[in-house]
Amino acid sequence: MRPVARSAIAAGLVLLVSQSGAAEEADQGAQLASTCASCHRLDGGGTIIPSIIGLGEERLTNALLAYRASQSPNHIMHAIALSLNDEEIASVARYVAAQGK
Amino acid sequence: MKSWTRREFGRLTGAALLTALNQPKARGQAKARVVVIGGGIGGATVAKYLAATATAIEVTLVEPRQSYATCFFSNLYLAGLRPFESLSHGYEALAKQYGITVIHESAAAIHPAVKTVALNNGSKLSYDRLVVAPGIAFRDRALNGYDEAAMEIMPHAWNAGQQTRLLRQQLESMEDGGLFVLVAPPNPFRCPPAPYERASLVASYFQRRKPKAKILILDAKDSFNAQDLFQDAWNRHYPGMIEWLPAQFTGGVTAIDAKTRSVITEGATFKAAVANVIPAQMAGRLAQQAGLANQSGWCPVDPVTFESALQPGVHLVGDAIIGWDMPKSAFCANSQAKACAFAIAADLTGSARFPAHLFNTCYTYLAPDDAFSNAISFKPVDGKLKSVISFISKVEESSEVRRQAARAAEGWYDAFTHDVFG
Ligand SMILES: Cc1cc2nc3c(=O)[nH]c(=O)nc-3n(C[C@H](O)[C@H](O)[C@H](O)COP(=O)(O)OP(=O)(O)OC[C@H]3O[C@@H](n4cnc5c(N)ncnc54)[C@H](O)[C@@H]3O)c2cc1C
Asked: Which sequence ranges are marked TM in the entry (chain A) (predicted)?
């Protein structure tokens, strides 16, 4: 590896560790929640597709886990939830739940 | 009218909506500049997400039109089921709420070596990063006789606007018993199910208003997207009304004669009462002129950052790119745009990088109360965007399930256009 590339990576690591874990998780949650916004309005409005604002972290987590487990009742939410690992479900649920407060 | 600063915006909307990311690199530095060319689905989404979450970046959006009309749901307009105005979206929220500088001009040229964009009015914009999202153009000489003048007689209606209105007028004034010919393009093209959704919804209009009319689809292909779902629906809803002729039967459409409103294939000439000619496509003109497209006519990009493989510092999203498994849809353009915005923010401001989640869902109408949907998620694999999870509605679904999908589509339209245009 060229020295320039190595020092760039090192600088990147310093930046990452200088952020707190909570801020990092919030950023991951924000980026994941942006994908939900293609179908769920994050301002709490919207029609027909249910709002996910104001549901609370536990209910969001449980809903995503249930959608991940089964194609029924909805193959769209099944595909979305299947693309998320446990850590991602936790951070998106926490982030979205915080938007309702 | 008052224009909002970004800080006021944050205060007004409170925690709702989008929050700024941590941007460690940006502290104490001059603001980085991103210029986005094209305020369609891909470009408007990149601009909005950069402005809202990478507050240390100054965002300029270049788009000639004052308002954008969506292609999605334009087939409902053609069938008389939605007013044209309901398809239109302005740029006021992007400018006033998100602090994006919106310039209503066309970009004339890009100069990547000096990082500037020349606009049609003669002015120049400098950038640190450029995003190009020009949508599609039609291939030159793809069909003999199909020039700009012919488009005014036999519209394509493949960019929503005046062309879509023209096709609607023609369908409305057509006599009962007339023949509507739809020429479907070769792959790859904007929105694979859309020509067949158009045939379905025009059939629903004919059934209500001109029950003796017929629809003929002359295809450049031998099969098409979700063919089983469409053909099942055509038999159930419109028996005998829609005929589909694959290229292997006709030899393909070779020419258009606008004077007689005829479509000419290798073996026969079809005279239409109304004709909708959708030609072969490529990335938008600006991408061709700027050397962003390869010999395929489409733009190669990095599947993680959407940076051009041909011009460093320039990113592309939407229909113009080589998307591998990702179809040319508004949903994909929006999904790529978010990944691209977060990648640019990480480069310029040091915000954290996470694996992107790329997705496509299309709600497709077979009749006003019968729609199907698909859901596909994509991942970068070996330098390409591959579909990793994929579901689509089934032929044997109950009419209640289909009715619900047709309703859900309306909810999607509302949320989606809100996501793009604020
Ligand atoms: C009939 C039909 C139905 C469809 N239905 C669906 C659907 O149900 N779901 C779905 O997901 N997708 C659907 N689509 C596809 C969808 O419309 C496109 O995939 C989407 O618009 C692509 O976004 P884009 O940003 O790449 O291009 P566009 O949205 O076309 O935006 C390109 C923008 O760039 C601007 N531009 C071009 N050149 C320049 C320049 N030189 N300078 C400045 N600006 C420029 C244009 O004015 C335009 O506003 C449908 C398409 C059609 C035709």
From this structure: none
β pairing state of B32-37 and B129-132: parallel
As for how many domains chain B has, the answer is: 2
Q: Is residue B408 part of a domain?
A: no
Closest-CA residue of chain A to B342: A31
What are the percentages of helix, strand and coil residues in chain B, rounded to 5? 30, 25, 40
Chain B residue numbers with beta carbons less than 8 Å from the beta carbon of A35 are: 335, 338, 357, 359
Q: Which structural domain range is residue B167 located in?
A: 141-279
d(CA B13, CA A97) in angstroms, rounded, equals 16
Confidence band, pLDDT 50/70/90 cuts, at residue B253: very high
Indicate the CATH number for domain A3-99: 1.10.760.10
Q: Are B108 and B118 in contact (CB under 8 A)?
A: yes
Residue with tokens 């749901």: B73
B80 SS3 class = coil
Can you tell me which residue has the tokens 């600088």? A11
pLDDT in tens, B129-178: 999 999 999 998 889 999 999 999 999 999 999 999 999 999 999 999 99
Q: Does the complex come out with an ipTM higher than 0.85?
A: yes
Task: Please indicate, yes or no, whether residues B167 and B236 belong to a single structural domain of this protein.
Answer: yes
Determine contact, residues B229/B371, Cβ cutoff 8 Å: no
Place of tokens 């990335």: B283
Give the number of other CB atoms < 10 A from CB of residue B369: 15
The answer to whether B413 touches B73, Cβ cutoff 8 Å, is yes
Q: Indicate if B216 and B268 belong to the same structural domain.
A: yes
Q: Residues B364, B327: contact at Cβ < 8 Å?
A: no
Residues B359, B221 contacting (CB under 8 angstroms): no
pTM assigned to the model: 0.94
**Residue A100 exposure: Cα atoms within 13 Å on the Cβ side:** 15
Nearest to B416 among A39, A42, A78 (CB): A39
Instruction: Indicate whether B132 and B145 sit together in one domain.
Output: no
CATH number, position B275: 3.50.50.60
Q: What Rg value do the Cα atoms of chain B yield, rounded? A: 22
Q: Select the residue of B350, B375, B416 nearest A75 (Cβ to Cβ).
A: B375
CB of A36 within 8 Å of any CB in chain B?
Answer: no
How far away, in angstroms, is B171 Cα from ligand 1 center?
23
pLDDT digits (tens, 9 = 90+) for B192-234: 999 999 999 999 999 999 999 999 999 999 999 999 999 999 9
